[in-house]
């Protein structure tokens, strides 16, 4: 029997034994074929190692499984092709400066897939595992939009990216749905936890260490990290956490969410789960709503901030931070990219719309004379109120109970490569740090060096629980905040003052 044929037979046999429960743990991979508990998968090897794409970690949440906790994935025979990612979860196409965040494929309810990226170097020692939870306001995005290959190969870690249900499909709460299982509204979080359980069960076959898993995510992904951090259902599924530009977002209580869900169902002409599940996905997607995880008493038993305050969380190391100019992209989208500019005369009214009860207190602290343009002034207000100071406040609470590290990403030219037609500099806005972490920067030598340092910080943290390594400037625990800048990487002590957190932290 020729070696390739022998490898296929061995992989098929291992997959069959695993699916039947006859192997207590996944066996070692044969070349780029890896057995999982549901079947074998063949990866694709490239310059950054081997990628195993589109692995189902749960059953398609369609038909009777729509708006139910994730069910086990069905086993398959033979070797599954891992050269293409699974379809992204149902969502409305959203153009962003980075492109369509849905990534490759066609949005579908059949979307509970993950991707595994393994370094090219061989080693007998299990590698740290980094599980990426994408952002997108809980309504858009996909795991496959982010290529974890460079991060895995350069950081010598195993990287997992995943999809989870979005929008109404992921976060609809309704009394009738709660009556079925005792809770509703957090299907997207339950998907993430199902993926983490898949990692715990299977990642050893990919060379990963199931006892050293880091979850990291940005924006809604950062919120998901912190929601899983305090969820009793996720205890023991990960051992370190990184929240980028999002963490302790407030969540509606069960009654509020279920009331909103009843209005949503009425708009669909439904009063019961059977009717809701019979509606075509396009009809469900067309009904507007505000989608977020829910304080349901089961997946989330309270607010994230309150859990941080009381210490009701595992004592694992955490990193959290924000970008220097979080809200500039939002302001650019609202004004310049919409065909108009924010003027000095309009600036006070814009602040009053955002903070009607506090505008007279806010405006004197953010005079136009302190900023290059009215747009930059408004962005500073929104950055401090929505990101910088909430991040600082929640890290303050976390640091009372566990080892915490904080950062601010501060490359003033982080998005210059996009060449957007704006009347003000974008600086370091929301999401601009992601490609630095994933090793996708091809800018100036200083930017590439910053990316190298950030990739090293993140992967060293995943490996050891501290970001410090021999080749990077020292990063001190909170309350110091690490300034991540192309020209000055190191600790700073003026973060709260610089962002006027006395105004925003109560």
Feature tags:
3-stranded mixed sheet, alpha/beta, 18 helices, 11-stranded mixed sheet, about 500 residues, disordered N terminus
The tally of helices reads 18
Extended strand count: 16
Q: Tell me the β content.
A: 15-25%
- Largest sheet report: 11 strands, mixed
Helix percentage = 25-40%
Low-pLDDT residue intervals, each spanning 5 or more residues: 1-29
Q: Round the mean pLDDT to the nearest integer and report it.
A: 93
CA radius of gyration: 23 Å
**What oligomeric state do these chains adopt?**
single chain
Report how far apart the termini are. Answer: 72 Å
Given helix and strand content, the structural type is: alpha/beta
Strand order of the main beta sheet, please?
3-4-8-10-9-11-12-13-14-15-16
Question: Care to describe what's here?
Answer:
With 506 residues, the chain is an alpha/beta fold. It is 34% helix and 16% strand. The chain contains 18 helices and 16 strands. Strands 3-4-8-10-9-11-12-13-14-15-16 form an 11-stranded mixed sheet, with helices on both faces. A 3-stranded mixed sheet has the order 1-2-5. It has a two-stranded antiparallel ribbon with strand order 6-7. Helix 2 links the parallel strand 9 (127-133) and strand 10 (158-162). Helix 12 runs parallel beside helix 14 (374-398). The termini are far apart. 53% of the residues are buried.
